[in-house]
Design goal:
Layout: E1 8-10, E2 32-37, E3 43-46, H1 47-50, E4 56-63, E5 68-79, H2 80-88, E6 100-105, E7 110-114, H3 115-118, E8 124-129, E9 132-133, E10 143-145, E11 158-164, H4 200-215
Parallel strand pairs: 1-5, 2-11
Antiparallel strand pairs: 2-3, 4-5, 5-8, 6-7, 6-11, 8-9, 8-10
The protein binds ligand MTE and molybdenum atom.
């Protein structure tokens, strides 16, 4: 299968991310997703109730901005559009015109997503991967999965969704490797200030170590 520009396939699926120096956060006994921001009232949705919404399967590759791709993953969960239309839209302030969403994880990680990208048909809130409940390495209890965008959009251990009528302030905005605001893999939108192709040589040096990490990876349950 064809990969997006500048990507290389790895075997397995490494645990990866900006919070890798910490173990994955423990899964709460009764996990919930808080929904807040430009709403008439905030709401808390239990992960158990989320799982009762119409279910969606998604077969997709997963592309990290660092150049590795995990191929042929099978996610199960709820389409983000279903969650948005049924749980969020009814609570919007009357004249609100939402433009951005923030997805926050139990480890404090946050990703900001343009509404149009979040409502794409292949965006799911996943609670299962490859026929099993999502494990902590890959974002238990639930995570965002947006396979058309680099992995940094796909917040793991999802615990809060915020809706915004304008772009929320971004602490990384001056970072030379700040993530691209759209992060679309087929357009190679890796970074905000650097063209995607320009960073390929740097990332290429990381692929060997990441491949080795991935070969040891948790996908086969080996550790
Ligand atoms: N909560 C949380 N979500 C996160 C991250 C993180 O560090 N914490 N890292 C992101 C990045 S950069 C990538 S590539 C993917 C990695 O997902 P994986 O560990 O399932 O491979 O998670 C994304 N979501
Ligand atoms: Mo990533």
């Amino acid at each position: 299968m064809k990969l997006p520009p500048g990507q290389r396939a790895v075997d397995g699926f490494p645990r990866f991310g900006t919070h890798l120096h910490h173990p994955p956060p423990p899964v709460p006994a009764d996990p919930v997703i808080e929904i807040g921001g430009a709403l008439t009232e905030g709401v808390t949705l239990s992960v158990a109730d989320l799982a009762k919404l119409p279910r969606q399967e998604l077969a997709a590759d997963f592309h990290c901005v660092a150049g590795w791709t995990a191929t042929g993953l099978l996610w199960e969960g709820v389409a983000f559009e279903t969650l948005y239309r049924t749980q969020v839209e009814p609570l919007l302030e009357p004249d609100a015109s939402i433009s951005h969403l923030v997805f926050e994880g139990l480890d404090g990680y946050r990703s900001t997503v343009v509404l149009e990208d979040a409502l794409a048909e292949d965006v799911v809130i996943a609670d299962r991967l490859d026929g099993r409940p999502l494990d902590s390495d890959h974002g238990a209890p639930v995570r965002l999965v947006s396979p058309g965008q680099y992995g940094y959009i796909s917040t793991k251990h999802l615990c809060r969704i915020e809706v915004h009528a304008s772009r929320p302030p971004d602490p990384d905005r001056w970072s030379p490797i700040a993530g691209h605001r759209r992060a679309r893999v087929w357009q190679e939108e890796r970074h905000r200030h650097l063209p995607g192709r320009a960073v390929r040589p740097f990332y290429r040096t990381l692929i060997g170590p990441i491949r080795r990490l991935s070969a040891r990876g948790s996908r086969t349950g080996q550790g």
